[in-house]
């Protein structure tokens, strides 16, 4: 039987004659930080102070003594699950090999060897610059040379990320001792045929020189099957009658089945492979129709509007992300009503912990191959690396029912067409051969059960512009970069795979990251932690379209930019969801952050939820009520993604900002399951001018579903001076409004960094009250609690 010996202990990190203790898995930066050699790059200007680390070479060393190295078994392999990135590995002075791909694992035969194990990392810059020198420079969205080395691209910095170029043994390492044969690879092809769960396990084995008959035996859901191994291959088929279907969250349960596969020789078990699978079907409907070319995920025959978020590596030092942290972050996504997470191409093929959590939580996963925002050379050594990493990761991730889509790259097909790459490349390779050649071929060969799309955005072919909203996936970035968020309403893309709006992180996060700094939008630390091109300018202009920009009042600026972020994303999602099934998904840029930073994230770098996070709960609920401008009038849309019909009377009230009801009507709406119903707002109820607005409430009002419409931007609304009362309740506070109170927010973290409020922005009409639950604080008095309450104020 194969035996594994973990090699997590006893490593040192060496640079020239200096040594310090090393963590494995880990990276150089975190070791230097733990040893007190560098300041925390997440704090203040720390990022700039540690830039030298990424330019140096570093060696990890450990003794492989007789006891761990020797074994009675025939063969011993040294297995690295991940090396970041360019390294020479030697044992007892003998070279074992060189590696250059963070996205692969490596195995070396070290039978009979012992002595000093050394992994000598060369700076990823050195490799990238050498490859660029040989293959020629290619265009990219950022200046750092990330497209010349197979390493997480955002290691080199991004428009939300620090430049911290890591090196290290970033995933576990171990010895495997085995005899006769071991399981080298298992490809589980899981399908559903008329209610029967079908599992086909294609097994590859590696043998020592001894040729003995081998068999594989598998069990799943109480079914057992066996097959002979012919040479190095065997295939076992199992049929599980009455298989329970795995569903995305909100559509059904997530039953998972344990699969066990044993490699047998003369009745003895040589090796065991265990995974969890789920039975579900997935298709991507890309048929053309009257509106263009669709992009609709169909799971178990159910057509879905995907309520998505984009995921970036949760830490710029990914070896720090524990299973618990993945789980917590993904639970946050699920808690916001998200049902799809797109793993963006400037990051990683994530660890098993990520996909395990998604399997359990019913989060669909869209996985980008790691290519983003650059022209990538297709020559060696990159070409071979790309194919090898794709083969390995497609097979590694196949067991997970949550994984429903492979995507070739982020924005590279678009960049080629639109960002002056085509003329600058002048015929050089740029990655098309990966996205339209190597990658779809690998997916089709190894895992034909899952759809593949060449890029995001991508219209399906070169006949249409890659970012054409009418065809396939669309990234909506003009709006954040140059326009007002109201412009989201100008089009109905088939699937919005990226769009978003920036805001600073929670106050307590800023306070931790920028100790001692007098905070201002342009204070030194704030600028160090704002990476977007003209980010503050865009924040400012975006804000000025809606609010009077507060001068010299950081706290108000902080609150209003967060409100504006939530409003912007709401404008997009409310409009796009109301156009289901033409539009079949929105994937917000972005769920999370990899350090404390002003960014598009809903959850900040310290894991705190911004107001946008709570707004997503409303926007992504099964039922959403929204008021939309259409053809010169207003329309009330009831969006129903649930399985039950939604019929009811909706109350429309035309209100004055002082609280007077100017007109009122009841309208009937009937939205069938997974359908949208719309009804025109009677003309006499349409509010006009700076003193009026419209409220639509769903009746019966059990869910408190409401839509609001203000005809002019906030800075023109003649809001009354807000008045409200605050009372402490056992689990939080209750606020009772005496006037209209717009977008009330309790920033609990201002009172206690540990405190979390259970809701974000709440608008109250005069006389209404809300109870905001708070956990994690030492209950303050009502006046102190009040100091952390913000709301929109009249323009003075
Ligand atoms: C898209 C993404 C990222 C980027 C984001 C915000 O281009 O794919 O590259 O971080 O926009 O600019």
TrEMBL record:
Which controlled-vocabulary keywords does the entry list?
Answer: Glycosidase, Hydrolase
> Which SUPFAM superfamilies did the record assign?
(Trans)glycosidases (SSF51445), beta-Galactosidase/glucuronidase domain (SSF49303), Galactose-binding domain-like (SSF49785)
Supply the Pfam families for this chain.
Glyco_hydro_2, Glyco_hydro_2_N2
- GO molecular-function term, one example from the UniProt record: hydrolase activity
Is Nucleotidyltransferase included in the keywords of this UniProt record? no
Q: Which reaction is recorded as catalysed by this protein?
A: Hydrolysis of terminal, non-reducing beta-D-mannose residues in beta-D-mannosides
Top-level enzyme category: hydrolase
Catalytic activity, EC: 3.2.1.25
Give all residue intervals belonging to the Glycoside hydrolase family 2 immunoglobulin-like beta-sandwich domain: 230-280
| UniProt record similarity statement | Belongs to the glycosyl hydrolase 2 family.
Question: What's the protein called, per UniProt?
Answer: beta-mannosidase
Organism of provenance: Streptomyces purpurascens
